[in-house]
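Support request, please re-run this one:
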Amino acid sequence: MDALLDARARVLADLNSRGLATATVVSALEDAVSERGWWVSQWPEGSMYVAGLVAQDVQDALADTGQRWPLCVGCDEHSPLHILYISPDLGGPDPVWVCEETGDIVAPLGGL
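Re-run finished. Output below.
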């Protein structure tokens, strides 16, 4: 379960860096960690993917409420607002945030 604690800490750090670590959002994070806990118990070899998957789960939960997270802050101010996404798609083993516009790696998960 160390992978789940690491996933929680990394996603929480990125939420915090963007000022989104509210009670509601942290609750969504806790739900994602809990659901992925079952997933890891069924496929222990998949634990290397869990951090990126938790980040994607939180992104999806926020999108369901109309919030886009994390927004890219590195592009030109004339660019329309756009988000970062986790790469690789499966979430690991070394997930990074990538700009959806440029395709550039912005930060490792937990390093926004």
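The beta strands are 84-87, 96-99, 105-108. DSSP finds three helices and three strands in the chain.
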